[in-house]
Amino acid sequence: MFNYIRKKIQERKKKKSFQAYEFQIVDFHLVHEGTIQYARWLHPGEFGNEVHHENVDFYRQFIREGDFVIDIGANEGDTTVPMALAAGKSGLTLALEPNPYVFNVLEANAGLNKEKTNIIPLNFAATGYDGNFTFGSGDPSYGNGGIVGFTYNQKRNVRFTFNVTGKNIEDYLKKQYPHLLSKLTFVKIDAEGYDKEIIKTLPAILHFCRPHLVTECFGPSTIIEKVELFDLLIQLNYTPYRLTDFTLKSNVKINREDMAGKKTFDILAVPN
Hints:
- By secondary structure, the chain is an alpha/beta fold.
- It has a single domain (23-271), classed as Vaccinia Virus protein VP39 (Rossmann fold, 3-Layer(aba) Sandwich), CATH 3.40.50.150.
- 28% of the residues lie in helices and 28% in strands.
- The strands form three sheets. An eight-stranded mixed β-sheet has the order 5-4-3-10-11-14-12-13, with helices on both faces. A four-stranded mixed β-sheet has the order 6-9-7-8.
- Helix 2 packs across helix 3 (80-87).
């Protein structure tokens, strides 16, 4: 009993102090792609992410071989890798992740499966303007978190903070990849409630390129913010669907009142 109590105390201390976590290379066997390698972050909050052929098939509904796709808030790359497999080696997948403690894992994933993917990892946040921003997390080892100071919920994710670089992603794309914008078919955004602020910075891209979007209704956000995200998608002429998971399962169209719940869920926004 004494050893059990001591172990629990040690685990609790770990959760309250910073620890840099390494990553582990694991293999996944997919139906069409064969064996792929994946760098899995060993942070306990990441729950052992996996890549399945159903995930890749989901993206293949919207992404063709050779397409240009963007993963904003890529974390370790658990959505980046399936997106990149769908776009293939002849396509290009940009993966944005401002958190330096997980970015090295994303870099590792970008370096794997080079014969099947083309991933460029970018260590900055998509923000309204170029500059320095505060990244905050409720976890001392920064397993999750996002930009702070934009939300009505000012107390969220400010216990552990550091500065990150932010760039206006629409300006960045126009400068760095103007030749690929006609091939932009898919944008995934997962930024802990900052999603709508990122979408606001992409007016020309969304108007002219019309990519499919995956974004998030973030549970801790206020109802006002969640409804604002819904209204923004409607104004941009997108139809929002509740995304059950990243597989081929059917999705249900979202109404404005569906945004009022407390649980976080993903949204697939389809251009009209």
